[in-house]
Amino acid sequence: MTTMTSPSSEASRATATPRHATLLAMRHVRHVYDGAQVAVDDVSLTVGPGEVVCLLGPSGCGKTTLLRIAAGLEALQEGELSLRGEPLSVPGGRHVPPEKRSVGLAFQDSALFPHLRVLENVGFGLESLPAGERRERAMALLEQLGMADYARTYPHQLSGGQQQRVALARALAPAPALMLLDEPFSSLDARLREQIRDDTLHVLKRVGAGTLLVTHDPEEAMFMADRIALMHDGRIIQMGTPRELYCEPEDPFVVSFFGAVNEWSGEVRDGRVATPVGPVAAPALAEGARARVMIRPEALRVTPVELPDDERREEPARRGQVIQARLLGRSSLVQLHARGADGSEANLQAQVPGVFLPEPGQPVALALDTSQTFVFPAGAGA
Ligand SMILES: Nc1ncnc2c1ncn2[C@@H]1O[C@H](COP(=O)(O)OP(=O)(O)OP(=O)(O)O)[C@@H](O)[C@H]1O
User: Fold this and answer.
1) 5 in a domain, yes or no?
2) Which of 343, 334, 340, 272 is nearest to 299 (CA)?
3) I need a surface site. Which of 63, 64, 235, 367 has the fewest CB within 10 A?
């Protein structure tokens, strides 16, 4: 579905945005369906002018509900919601309807008007502009999204990906202050998705629209977002830049949401936790505390060694043996059996850039990139 609001000129937006460092603000928003199903629970977030914020999380965590509240498609039950400092909705009170919010919406199932050609679809929300200007603006957006050649085509003659581009152009046409995008690329195949999200990001940044984008795909969020809000069970578990979430996760859920990890639990001894690939520092945990260690597959450095040399030179704590290796494309996934100095044994996975396919049984030396190794108190997390 795509909804448009009355056009606001680029000039008026340019003068309006500097007065408010925050474009969209949601504070302590809570939403309950049917009086029982808590979909959003005490969520606060902001989107700045020109900023792309991704709502990321597993199915059912409340992303779409939050987006629909921002759009005005769902009433605000509890909390605060404002655009450029002006309340959009007051629980049980004033509610600015979607078409008056200066927001552009593009949802996964965005339907174009079947009886209108592509150019007319994109120009639909610009009826207040003179025909020439409307046409010019719609064409400019179609060009930016690589769809200018289809201006006179009807929607049913377009592929799904082409229709999504047109839907995005239509949502962007009135130059909304805020774009709300719900899984806009999810029905596309992998290569087309990459292309369209790249084009979309360029257009969003060029027009300077603040954007709240829903996705369940961590890679998409990393690519698109200036900041990511990672959600679980209606709550934001962590909000920050892609680098902060990936490199400074505050919760085990954040680590595991970005991909499979090797995990161990153990006790803190002398400020460290023993693992089959060597001790890991646990400075934030008390001596004797139970700890959960999470090691990303790319944190393991794997070097084939000759067994006799290895036995003489390598620390036994850093030894392993290849079970099998698989080429994933840009990287290789190596399944290993590791044996710790304390006699502990474990199977683990290493992800190595490029083609790295050691034979099963190959002895290897293992080193650990501690920047991709995380320690949490046992039992912590969402
Ligand atoms: N109209 C509704 N009536 C009742 N419950 C609903 C309704 N819409 C959503 N829910 C429930 O609210 C919770 C959050 O749903 P929501 O669609 O916001 O999650 P989501 O993160 O967007 O999920 P997905 O990625 O699958 O779209 C879910 O448990 C869902 O079943």
Assistant:
1) no
2) 334
3) 367
Domain CATH for 79: 3.40.50.300
Q: What is the pLDDT of residue 236?
A: 97
- Here the tokens at position 225 are 């977002």
User: What would the two tokens of residue 185 be?
Assistant: 């690329």
Query: Ligand 1: which residues within 6 Å by Cβ?
Result: 33-34, 37, 39, 57, 59-65, 216
Question: How many domains does the structure of the chain reveal?
Answer: 2
Cα first-last separation, the chain: 33
Can you tell me the ipTM of this complex? 0.97
* CB proximity list for 271: less than 8 A, separation 6 or greater: 281, 282, 283, 287
Rg (CA), the chain: 25
Of 183 and 231, more confident? 231
On whether both 185 and 303 belong to a single domain, the answer is no
Domain that holds residue 295: 260-377
CA distance 201 to 333: 31
170 and 58 within one domain: yes
Do 244 and 326 lie in a common domain? Answer: no
Substitution candidate for ligand 1 out of 30, 31, 37, 237 with most atoms within 8 A of CB: 37
In this structure, the answer to whether residues 186 and 77 fall within a common structural domain is: yes
| pLDDT exceeds cutoff 70 at 268 | yes
Would the pLDDT of 250 be above 50?
A: yes
